[in-house]
Amino acid sequence: MKNIDNNPTVSIVMAVYNGESFIDEAVQSMLSQSFQDFELIIIDDGSTDGTHEKLLNYSDHRIILERNPTNQRLIASLNRGLSLAKGKYIVRMDADDVSLHLRLQTLVDYLDQNPRCVLLGSAHENFGDGREPKTIRYQENDKAIRYHMLLNTYLQHPTVAIRASSLKQHNLQYDERFVHVEDHWMFYELSRLGGVHIINTPLLRYRIHAQNISVVYSENQLQTQNNIRQRIAEDYGLHFKHKDSFIHYLSFMLVLKPQAHQTYTIQLPTTSRGFLELFDNLHILVLSMKNCEVEKNITRGVLTILPLLTGLSRADFKALLRHPLVAMSIKSPLGLFKLRMKNLLGISYQYNKILDQQKS
Questions:
Q1: How far apart are the C-alpha atoms of 182 and 188, rounded to whole Å?
Q2: Which residue did the predictor score with more confidence, 168 or 272?
Q3: DSSP letter string, 235-248
Q4: How far apart are CA 162 and CA 107, in angstroms?
Q5: Cα(first)–Cα(last) distance of the chain, in Å?
Q6: How is residue 113 annotated by DSSP?
Q7: Angle 199-205-210 (CA atoms, 0-180°, nearest 5)?
């Protein structure tokens, strides 16, 4: 149904650089959508192959083709696309992916029916690179997504739809400070403005190939993501008194939720004071998020950590056992007895081995 102000309901924003191998399939998948009230904004980011020539072949009036004179990279191109968008909803699309026929209709229907939702993603199907297609689904409710966002975007970037009014009213765009993880910060900022949801019906085919940005994490990119992780944690009320405090928190969280394409070393505190500070922060997180999954995962992690503390004195170990987060984690006298015995007998685990088990 057309908007009465003659603006399209949906603005699809796509940036492309040297994408001639896949661009036709991506564009055709949008033009053949069941929902037709859209504009397709394509930013050719200074391609040097045949991409631009292919795009010039399209005569559909809904395609708005812009070209950067030089390669300005993804963030600048996406922000240019956002500045041109006139739609009520912004839908992302990558030039190497394929949108399924009902994608736009499904996204629009949900956003129309849920006005509090500002950010919407979907399940997707991974394909390409010689692999069998595999459907990837997520926990769909708002609280679970916010928990997972502590470490990563959780929503797959090219699956999302954004309520345009949220961007305009708060002057939001992709942040140049967060190259290659710009979606993580954008999605977190949006999550502070309203609801977030994931539709667990696959609406996009996500192509895996060697040039995917998401399959390469340099040390600088990892540090950038860690900066986002720290800022999000601090927004939830956590306090990191020194650099090691954040390292200890991140180590704990990464054991609970190992991240693909990243290598890291787990570092735990070496003193009872360090552990108490870590438990203080984790307790704040449990209380501030008020989510049963958060409590379950963190308390499970605490029970994993406690047997490691064989180097502490009995007095320090008892002090840790009195911490409210530990009391929340230990549900029975038998559980407390087992932990005391492990501590007294010197039974401990290699934390990196636990991490390897989580990944496998």
A1: 10
A2: 168
A3: HTT---SSHHHHHH
A4: 10
A5: 48
A6: H
A7: 130
Contacting residues for 339 by C-beta, under 8 A, at least 6 apart: 303, 306, 307, 321, 330
Three-class secondary structure of residue 186 per DSSP: helix
Q: Are 329 and 359 in contact (CB under 8 A)?
A: no
Encoded tokens for 294: 């958060």
The single residue listed with the structure tokens 């009872």 is 272
Q: List, in order, residues 6 or more apart from 174 with CB less than 8 Å away.
A: 74, 75, 78, 79, 82, 182, 183, 186
Q: Which residue has the higher pLDDT, 333 or 156?
A: 156
User: Which helix (H) or strand (E) element contains residue 357?
Assistant: helix 351-359
Question: Positive or negative CA dihedral for 163, 203, 213, 227?
Answer: positive
Buried-state track 256-276, b at ≥16 Cβ within 10 A, e below 16: bebeeeeeeebebbeebeebb
Between 50-54, 79-83, 104-108, 138-142, the lowest mean confidence (pLDDT) is in: 138-142
Range with the largest mean pLDDT of 193-197, 215-219, 332-336: 193-197
The H or E element containing residue 228 is helix 219-235
Query: Model pTM greater than 0.70?
Result: yes
Sign of CA dihedral 136, 140, 145, 148: negative
Which residue in the block uniquely carries the two structure tokens 């053949």?
A: 32
Cβ neighbours of residue 95 closer than 8 Å, sequence gap 6 or more:
14, 15, 16, 19, 22, 23, 26, 42, 51
**Percent over 90 (pLDDT), the chain:** 63
Positive or negative: CA dihedral 266, 186, 286, 259: negative
